[in-house]
Amino acid sequence: MAQKAIREYDAKSILAKHWNKYFPDFTYAYETVMVQNGSELNEVAKTASWLNEKTLVAKPDMLFGKRGMNDLVLFRDAKPGDVSLAKAASWIDEKSTGDQSVYFSFDENDKPSGEPSVDKLTNFIVEPFTPHEQSEEYYVSATCVGDNDVIYMSAEGGIAIEQNWDAKVIEVAFPITATEDEIAEKIRANVPKDVAEKNKAQFAEFCIGFFKAYRELNFAYLEINPFVMQGSKIELLDMVAKLDDTAGFMMVEEWGDVEYPTAFGMEAKSPEVEAVEEADAKTGASLKLTLLKPEARIWTMVAGGGASVVYADTIADMAGIDDLANYGEYSGGPTTGETKFYAETLLDLMTREKDPQGRGKVMIIGGAIANFTDVAKTFTGIIQAFDVYAEKMKAVDLKIYVRRGGPNYEKGLKDIKEAADRLGLYIEVYGPETHVTDIVRMALEK
Amino acid sequence: MEQLYTKDTQAIFWNNNKTAIQRMLDYDYTIQRKTPSVAAIVAPTSGNKFDKFFFGPDEVMIPLFKTTAEAKAAQPQADVLLNFASFRTAYDVTMEALEIGGFSSMMITAEGIPERLARGMNQTAREKNVTIIGPATVGAITPGAFKVANIGGTITNIVQSKLHRAGSCGLVTRSGGLFNELSNIISINADGIAEGVAIGGDRFVGSVFIDNMLRMEKNPTVKYMILLGEVGGTEEYKVIEAIKSGAITKPVIAWCIGTIAKYYDSGVQFGHAGASANGEMETADYKNNAMREAGIHVPNSFNELPGMIKSVFEGMNLAEIPEPEMSTVPAVRRSKEFICTISDDRGEECTYAGFPISSVATPATGKGIGDVISLLWFKKQYPKWATDFIETVLKTVADHGPAVSGAHNAKVTARAGKSVVESLVTGLLTIGPRFGGAIDGAAEHFKYADDNGLTPKEFLGHMKKEGIPIPGIGHRIKSLKNPDLRVTGLMNFAAENFPSTPLLDYARTVEALTTSKKENLILNVDGTIGILMVDMWRALGYSEDEINEFIASGTLNAFFIVGRSIGFIGHVLDEKRLAMPMYRHPMDDILYDVPEAEEI
User: Fold this and answer.
1) Which of B257, B266, B269 to mutate to test the interface with A (most CBs of A within 10 A)?
2) CB count, 10 Å around CB of A397?
3) Chain B positions in Cβ-Cβ contact with residue A442 (cut-off 8 Å)
């Protein structure tokens, strides 16, 4: 549950869907498609005639910026603005084949700095090439800073905006309780002076609609850099957006079928992680799992958002992060069945391979003193998972360290100890008299 | 407000979360609070009026309401809202309560309220000077005074962690689980906490560390503070500023968890939604260093926090806190099957609503049957004019001859050789909408018309549209010229003794209209009784809602049942005395019309 980045294509689609509500005095052609390869583009072109009629621009739509600097924006074949459908399709096929290196940072001479991220390009956005003057390009964005919403406006768009931020960009902040009238008035009063006098009123109206869309559609971040304004005609050349996904339940209709992709260079979510996410979405409790290094030897199954972090901190301090396989937590009173599923997922992952260095594996079943989660009930789920995985656990020489307190913890600790003994598993069990993270030290000393 | 809660603080609990509420009451009993800390429960979908909870070995009833507004109106002293609504409705519940007003703090447990809504809610509360704890929190506690819902866990853990009485530490954390853990650590290494708040794990929470710490700075019970922060956000810097400016002078011990986050890129979300560093300043290491530089006691790791607490605490040389007396919650408690709120036979002498029978029974007590009814039916001591009126009603309705259906039934049953009780019951069973029901109906409909300001003409139109003859209007033979003397008697009594008779006055204007149409459409005895009962209750100070409830629950009918039982028993005894034979209805008094059944 947090702010989640969405694709440029989805951001444009959301604005287009509500265009007349927020921008009644402007038009936007919404000529944009997202494809994964050239043949898909050719297929789409059978219904979207503009793909055949106009020259095109194509670029990856995978949450990263600086695509121009990475030479990943196709807008010229022989000369700028001459890209045909066939050229776009072949370029997409070329770029989506094999790994691509992408640099996220550049030095002052536009030379790449740092290590590139390497991954496959899978999603491309294709749009008409829009001939326009530099003076018709503008910048607008909005986000939340501290307790306020802030709109950023500039008469100059494009990638140079970051270098000239202080000189060119006007910031206007609004408290969450600001009314529409107050917002409109303040935006009108703060139009950047570089916007031509004749365009000032129109620019302000567009920004007012933009900011209203940002607020009402529950964007966490929204940027158009640049947009082209030619009279009442608007082109959205490039967009970046994040949604507050906690608002998802109210925005089902407004957002439509929006996707939260994994960032370029990040490994795709494993099926196990996806399964946990799916289970998390269905329960009032909380189930979280991130795989950090699945071949590592220390696995954590910790209850509580705070306690899980403390365990991760302590393992990093004492063993280093190379030994830490996962981060995750379960909390909010999950049912026995949910806990069993979560434990099985972890046990399955941790018993797949032996430690390459021949050491035994470690499972930390940790947690603070629970407020309301019934410890015996959740431990029943863990015990049921032990029953299924006992042999595999022994095969990787798994040692289990338990520390937990809270409602019914005495029974929970007794049950899990008995179960491990019955199954012939190595286990050490501690209650609230032992410091919460002390089992990490104990495990590492063995 | 130096202290978040006191020993008198009471809460309205939104959502009937029975386990959490019971934990609060167990805590109340343990620390020997006089009143339960939950004064009312808002349960929008429940049809019940109260729920039972244990208060020590005994049970108490906590009233249930459909809305926050009703709960607040009934329990205005309850100035804490414990909002246990889901993330879908928690915002609406909070905003409504802020609108109603009269709350000093609100705790919101839901995780994942849309950020924009959470921000609006927090800002509105701030403007109204209401302290918000949460969202996404387990709450707060002022040990020895008031505990929110589940914070502190079980009662065993609470006593173990010394959360049953005020210690010296002011504790603020983000995490609820670690709050509990810290309480335990503080009880082992120091003398417990004076007040503690888990501010909540969402990115936008209402009161932040600094808000709570500035309050604790003013609270003389708090001698030092512990802050457990997290990676992400800049709230810790506000605390640093307050220390630099001298707004906080008490010693502070602090640690930010999430030092691991620096090893991974921002794609890994550690802990709570609020725990994600945007920039170096928001990392745990950076914050820990900044706090250390500002003179805050910051250990080298979470593992060293207990030792740090011990050394700071011991360095302060505080006086030892005396352990207060505690009550022990019984391990085994059994819920009661029945509840009685009107009489009690457990003492020396049985009481009616607190009055021994002997104090109301004999003539020397000056009490009559009207007084007994007021005690047992209404749990109130009605004034003499009201008890006299009740007795007048009972006497007036005692009998109306052998021909009415109830008396007839009773007589027929008695002649079949059945007992007094059997015969009486057959008579009583006829009482309902058609027999005796006009009292209820008159009260209900005339009150409706009066409440809604209908003119007599509009009222008649309304009843016509409903297709109901006006209950309480009309007599077989009596008219204005030939009045029913029972009615005259009741009206004269009311005129002389009631403080006022607004509904009767209204009914007389209706009667003026109906009798102008037909002479015998007078206000009859049933109507007069029903209407005057409403006037009696109004004069006694009952709210319109309470009166409507009396009508709906059949209280008016009850007067008729009691009164007419006297007559029915008279008829039954009469039959017994006369030893009349079994009754068979004469066949020539029956119209027989029995065609042969058709085949279908």
Assistant:
1) B257
2) 15
3) none
State the average pLDDT over residues B136-153.
95
> What confidence score (pLDDT) does residue A158 get?
78
Please report which confidence band the pLDDT of residue A114 belongs to, taking 50, 70 and 90 as the band edges.
confident
Are the CB atoms for B190 and B243 separated by under 8 Å? no
How many Cβ pairs within 8 Å bridge chains A and B? 174
Chain A closest-CA separation from residue B123 CA (Å): 7
- DSSP letter at B35 equals S
pLDDT at res. B276: 63
In this prediction, residues A345-359 reach a mean pLDDT of 94
Q: Is A227 helix (H, G, I), strand (E, B) or coil?
A: strand
Nearest CA in chain B to A287: B271
Put simply, whether B138 touches A (Cβ < 8 Å) is yes
* Closest by Cβ to A435, choosing from B111, B259, B303: B303
State residue A216's pLDDT score.
97
- Tell the burial category of B77 from Cβ atoms under 10 Å away from its Cβ (0-12, 13-18, 19+): exposed
Q: Is B211 at the interface with chain A, CB within 8 A?
A: no
- Collect all residues with Cβ–Cβ distance below 8 Å to B377 and sequence separation of at least 6: B555, B558
Q: Exactly one of B272, B297, B445, B571 is catalytic; name it.
A: B272
- C-beta separation of B161 from B188 below 8 A: no
Interface confidence (ipTM) of the complex: 0.89
- State CA B91 to chain mean position distance: 22
A170 Cβ contact list (under 8 Å, min separation 6): A152, A153, A154, A190, A191, A192
Q: Return the structure tokens found at B400.
A: 């109306």
CB-CB: which of B154, B258, B276 is closest to A313? Answer: B258
- Residue A139: beta bridge partners? A154
Q: Judge whether B177 and A307 are in contact, CB under 8 Å.
A: yes
A316: nearest CB among B152, B157, B260? B260
Chain B residue with Cα closest to A440 = B303
Q: Is B260 on the interface with A (CB under 8 A)?
A: yes
Q: Where are the beta strands (DSSP E) in A7-123?
A: 27-28, 33-35, 56-60, 99-102, 105-106, 112-113, 117-120
Residue A367 backbone zone (phi > 0: left; psi -120 to 50: alpha; other: beta): left
pLDDT tens digits along B379-421: 999 999 999 999 999 999 999 999 999 999 999 999 999 999 9
Closest by CA position to A399, among listed A434, A367, A359: A359
Flag whether pLDDT at A1 surpasses 60.
Answer: no
B272 noted as active-site residue: yes
Q: Is pLDDT above 70 for B66?
A: yes
